[in-house]
Design goal:
alpha/beta; Alpha/beta knot; homodimer
């Protein structure tokens, strides 16, 4: 099948998915880019449709990925370049866009390992898709057990989350929960609730992060709400040696996650895959 | 003075500054937002002109900042809301935009402390203004000695750098240099050249970062060039426990900078200002 008309109803459906309203109504998301689709495929994420424009391919591995997806039941549709540009999200599109379902998970569906203390990330509200995607990338890299999203305003299926996450949106377990529900769930599992605040006495590198711990982060502009600050039993401080009083939220999150990794590697609670082999 | 016409030549001059070509030609930059202008003022950065639209103010501290800038010679101009929206960069403008000169510094103009080993950040090429701004914010927070920019493609005066840096563009010393010049300057000062690479044996938390060290970072897409990889005498690895093979460049930079802070605080080579007082 080749779509060459901008008036094709499929094209209109795809353009609709660029907006949150259309995405949420159809319960779908767009997955643009080779790396992102590869990670979705590796994670077993269902890609229902794949739109491709071979003239825009940037590498040589695309055909193998396309055949792999086709073999798992993905419907493959070729489109002309003007059509592709109509619904592509990126400035320099790579000629591959998939459509998949919005998968929603509840807290009790999360895979929580039995013998290792969980390392959790709780996003009270993150406004910028780029920050959320960067946090997912760090969560994947640190082997974070799961991300819990506590605010329906946070749009985890935004194409810029997919992009900034480089596809780790499909590999990090994510649950959505109301704040009270999340808090009760964490307390029932005796998870320490860690918040980074400039008023804390203890530096984040001096806190014991080898037990079950959830790092809670708030909005870029206002930080954590009082509800989560009150719930926090592990306040830590990231030293600020300059004039600014805060870091980017994705940066602060990565610092605490990696400090947990440093401590857990030293304690034998996590495994380091070691250096990557050179090609 | 009140500007109410979109045809006013000043408005056209300001709109020109939103584009790099106009900025570089005029050797000016835009400073939008209260926090960013406050940090510029605190740092003694010259703000030649200040455009304001009081109807858009979000706080109550703006008049004090305006008077402070006026007292240092800033020309203050009020504009109507349609005019402000014409040249504002942000989606939700705060009613304050300043214009300042592009200040360029050479390596030998950098303030290098004599008795503390320098902690330097070298950006070979960073493409996204948001990443560069976030890196400046982390450089400020870690007391980084200076940022050295080695690629003229990197646009440090982009309004999104100002914004993502939350004004720390004005507090972190920045020098521009050709790669060979930067390398010779670093070697003459016996600065170790650190690069994060997935092939390194040593983890970044196991490397000694208490001596003079420069963290070199490359483009988001391709990483460091061979030239800098060859020059690197301190290769380190950030453990990757998930499926992805790399982190966001601003995240990776912050991790290494803060590891240097952790080691320097423990060695008495840096001072932690301690917790911030509650209001």
């Amino acid at each position: 099948m080749l779509i060459s008309s901008l008036q094709n109803p499929r094209v209109k459906d795809l353009v609709r998915l660029r907006d949150r309203r259309g995405r949420d109504h159809d319960q779908k998301l767009l997955i643009e880019g080779y790396r992102e689709l590869l990670r979705a495929a590796d994670a077993g994420y269902p890609v229902h449709e794949l739109y491709l424009c071979p003239g825009l391919f940037q590498g040589t591995n695309e055909p193998a990925l396309i055949e792999r997806l086709r073999a798992t039941g993905t419907q493959v549709v070729e489109v002309t370049e003007p059509v592709f540009h109509k619904f592509a999200y990126r400035d320099r599109p790579e000629g591959l866009i998939g459509v998949g379902p919005q998968l929603h998970r509840r807290l009790d569906d999360l895979p929580i390992p039995a013998h290792v203390p969980p390392l959790l990330l709780v996003a009270e509200a993150i406004e910028k898709p780029g920050n959320l995607g960067t946090m997912l990338r760090s969560a994947d890299a640190t082997g974070t057990t799961a991300l819990i999203v506590c605010d329906p305003c946070t749009d985890i299926f935004n194409p810029n989350v997919v992009r900034a996450s480089t596809g780790t949106l499909f590999t990090v377990p994510i649950a959505e929960a109301a704040p009270d529900e999340a808090l009760a769930w964490l307390r029932a599992r005796r998870v320490h609730i860690l918040a980074a605040t400039p008023h804390a006495t203890r530096r984040f590198t001096d806190a014991d992060l080898t037990g079950p711990v959830a790092i809670v982060v708030g909005t870029e502009q206002y930080g954590l709400s009082q509800r989560w600050l009150d719930a926090c039993d592990l306040p830590v401080r990231i030293p600020m040696l300059g004039v600014a009083d805060s870091l980017n939220v994705a940066t602060a999150t990565a610092l605490v996650l990696y400090e947990a990794v440093r401590q857990r590697l030293a304690a034998g609670l996590a495994a380091d895959p070691g250096p990557m082999a050179k090609d």
